[in-house]
Model the fold of this input.
Amino acid sequence: MVHISDGVPLDPLLIMGSWVVTVAILLYALSKMKTEDVPKLSVITAAVFVASLIHIQFGPTSVHFVLNGFAGVMLGILAFPCIFVALVLQCFLFSFGGVTMIGINTINMGVPALIAYLIFKTGTGLDIRPETRKRASLFAAIAGGLGVVLALLFLATELITIGDVFLETTIAVVTAHLPIIAIEAIFTGVLAGFIAAVKPEMFEKK
Amino acid sequence: MKTIRILIVIALLLILCMTSIASAHRVIVQGQVSEIQIKAYYGGGGADPMVDADVEIYAIRDGQEELYKTGKTDDAGMYYFQPLIGVSEYRAAVEATGHSGEETVNLAEGAGLTESEQAEAEKEAGLPVAGIITGLGYLAGLAGIAMLITARKMKKEYENK
Done:
């Protein structure tokens, strides 16, 4: 449900504005991209792209993975182009979301990814060695879970502009996504701990 | 003897009369379309039913839409409604926490899907393998382009030094 689809009657100004912000962050992120980042970026984009197909039937709604917090922890600022590309492919190949909404959907998932990265960065100081892997794991888990929570919060904020009740909507979507939040937090935490133990240089400052 | 024969004949006549009365029961045949069935499920892997989703049914009369019924889907993602007399086109909009979809049912033009079409559509809503492979292909291509661009940038920086 994290994708907003074409039919949702959002304010056109919001849609346009989200496109402008998306393009701006995209250009900035891409200007920071180095050749050696590309393989990692592609692999994680592939994971984010396919993860949205994994559904969990929980209560009345069917929810799918987002993996934006995970992308943030692994990619830093490059999580933004990662999510943008994944959303474009999901939109055209799986008809998730909608073409006009790619901008706002990228913000909804990409900005929380960047915040998740900031949390991971401040928490660990990017001093990641096999000895500090517990700390890396902990903050990656927090970042991984929070990525999804923030994405839902962004979504709920936008939905109130079309008349949904904020608190009610937020509680409903967050409750529906509880298993996703938990699984993504554990997944990101375990993976970060594993990488910290075997290949800590993957987290080097970009 | 004669009176007995007469009695038997009368009795037979009476029986005949009775059966003719019995067979004269009217047979009533009525034609009625009692409900239209709406099924809502999620695409992209699994075809999970949309449970407890808000349904809005609009009756379309001469191109004019008006809200006819609202309700919620059941545990199997189904919603049933009775069509209006004289209105053969309906638009069903289903929405659950941000996910929404709609479909127009026209009774005059073959009334929605047949069962085999339904099965086919549900199969398509399953895991879109072709889409996944296409997407990974695009990603490989994008990665190549990104490598090319960043490599050119690196080369320029190297030459400037």
